[in-house]
Amino acid sequence: MAKGGGAWKVAYADFVTAMMAFFLVMWICGQDQEMKQSISRYFNNPMGLKPINESPHPDETGNIFSSSSNGELPKSKSMALGMGRRSYSTDREESQSTRLIGDTLFSNQATLDHWKERGAQEMARANRETGGQKEEALKAATSQLAKKMKQAHLFEIPTELPSVYRDLLYVTFNEVNWNQLAEDVLVEQ
């Protein structure tokens, strides 16, 4: 009687392992985005330990693209929107365009001073119109300042750009949450 080798067991184990991995990948692909992010966070840090000098929120590092990465942006707490903030009002969406314009606005002191002055003018006008009702005045001043900020930025788009680039800039500026930026300017005062 010939003795059989055990090599088939190794090949079978490899095949079963590959099939299990395949079915796990297929299962993950069928899940919603929230579940995929949860699984991704688990595999990035399966023990749930927070390494020194790393942010527990990988999507809040100040990246241009919203990919997961570890670590914090240097001096992120001193940046205007570097770590993000919760909105003062209820109708807010997070937007990369808003963050980029906000970072530019708050990093240039002369521009920030200009918009603070415009904000103070709008706040004074809104106080007169609303009879001093603080919440209503802030809402009206925010709305007017947001419109002026958007108009000023749209006015700066060069007309000699090819139309596709102008259109891209218009689309990007329309994605900016100008009310949020106006609130930030008014709160800075």
Describe this structure in words.
- With 189 residues, the protein is an all-alpha fold.
- The protein has seven helices and no strands.
- Helix 4 (109-130) packs across helix 5 (134-155).
- The longest helix has 23 residues, at 7-29.
- The protein starts with 6 loop residues before the first helix and ends with a helix.
- The relative contact order is 0.09.
- The model is unreliable at 58-87 (pLDDT under 50).
Short structural summary:
With 189 residues, this protein is an all-alpha fold.
What secondary-structure arrangement, pairings included, does this model have?
Layout: H1 7-29, H2 33-44, H3 96-107, H4 109-130, H5 134-155, H6 163-175, H7 178-188
Helix pairs in contact: 4-5, 4-7, 5-7
Key phrases:
single chain, 189 residues, mainly alpha, elongated
Structural class computed from helices and strand pairing: mainly alpha
Helix percent reads 55-70%
Q: Which outline best applies?
A: elongated
Rg is: 26 Å
Order of helices and strands: HHHHHHH
How many distinct beta strands?
0
Strand-residue proportion: under 5%
This entry's quaternary arrangement is single chain
Low-confidence segments, ≥5 residues, pLDDT <50? 58-87
Distance between the termini: 94 Å
Number of helices: 7
Major beta-sheet overview: none
Mean pLDDT value:
76
